[in-house]
Structures are given as structure tokens and as C-alpha cells.
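PROTEIN SPECIFICATION:
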Amino acid sequence: MPLIRALPRALLLIASIFVFGIAQAEDLKDIAQLANQGQQAAALERVNSYIASNPKDVQAQFIKGVILAELNRRDEAIKIFADITSKNPNLPEPHNNLAVLYAEKGEYDQARKALESAIKTHPSYATAHENLGDIYARMASEAYDKALQLDSGNTRAQNKLALIRDLFSSTKKPVMSATRPVTKASEPTKLADAKPAASKPAAKPAQVASPTTAPATPAPAAAADASEDIKAAVAKWAKAWSDQDVDAYLASYSSSFKTPKGESRSA
């Protein structure tokens, strides 16, 4: 069940020039264009050569990480982004990309921590918030699957799982930031400067309001309410799981659910 939004297949470009000279910026643009044209191997060779002469260039390292991810060299990409985050903890994009790579490996707790770090540095980073919601949903989905394995008659878990699957049936995998991060050393990175280029496409009917359209019918409103209910349920379950709150965790399941060894559900 694909709940996680897929990595973009193209490396997006940005035209901004920060602390680098014109020639250096043009080199990085050329490298990014190669990757954008599907020539990842050639782009990787070029960026490695560039980094050899500019070992402290964070934007070049970031581009290399994205190229490695697109080549499915996941562990190498993780190493690159982890190094960037350790040296530049206030840049949100590397944290987000780490989360995407961890999620692809099924390491959802690591992905959650990386996204929380991105949000901590930039609370308005919408991509990280959305990806975090998807990670929680994936974790909840696995837990409901497990609950149904233990108690196939648990209709409450069946309904929640069905809602999650329906809610995310048309989504892609977590969005990886392909935009190079701002690396201006004289001042903190601003979200406006470090805007993630690979944010979710704007065409999302449920979120786009049009002043000329007719009022929504009750059926879509009911669907929206159901979506909000399941989002709230997932968030409540995830918080209980993260806080190790056994009572709250078990309260997410129906009264007919029994623990694997038949332990009491009371505190």
C-alpha cells in the first residue's frame, strides 16, 4: 500500500546566486541541467570533480545527495545529507531529504526524527509537515494491520485502516527537496530563501478554493470530515505511541481487541 510520496525523477534548478562567484554558480547550474535531463551518471562525475576543488560547498554536496538518491544509491545519499545536517543544522531541506530516504528503507522512526528537526528549524516548512503526516499514517497503517492479524474481527481497526488507505490512495511518496539550500553564512537561513522546490503540486482540488464555483455538496463535506477524523485519530495514536502512553495507545482500539497474550487492558 503506497502511502509515501515518490522522489521526483528530475533535479529542479534554481537561478539564485548566493555566496558563490558567477563561474561557480554556472558550474552548478550545468551539473543540475545534466541531472534534469536524466544524465545522472555524468552529473555525478561533474559534481565530484567540482567538490574536489570546492570541498566546503554545501550546495554542491546537496546536489550530489539528490543525484545519488535518483541513482538509487540510498546509503551514500543518506551519508551526504547526514553530514550536511550535522554541519548546517539550521537548513531544513537536508533534514527533509534524510526523512524521505529513511522512509524508503522502512526506518519510520528515523524519518520522523529528521522531519521534526526540519520543522524545528523552520516551523512553516509545509513539505516537512505533510511528509510527517504521511509517516505517522504509515506507522498507523502497520499497527492496524497488526491489530487485524491478532483480531480479524476488529471492525474498528478495519474501518480506520480502510479510511487511511482511501485517504492516501491517490498520493505519491514523501517529497524530496531538490532545491539547493541557502548557505549565506552571515545570517540565519530564511524560509523564503530556502523554499523547497519539490513541494507537492498545487493541483489539489480539495484544497483549492474558487470564488466562482458552486457551494460544495454535502457528500464532499462528509468526505472531508471523515478525512479530518482519521487524521486526528492517526495523530492521537502516533502521540500515544511516541509517549509510550499504554492507556491512550490501547484506547485507540475497540473494546473487543485483545492483546497478544491476553493481558488486562486496564492500567
Notes: The CA atoms of residues 1 and 165 lie 7 Å apart. The domain at 22-195+217-251 is CATH 1.25.40.10 (Serine Threonine Protein Phosphatase 5, Tetratricopeptide repeat).
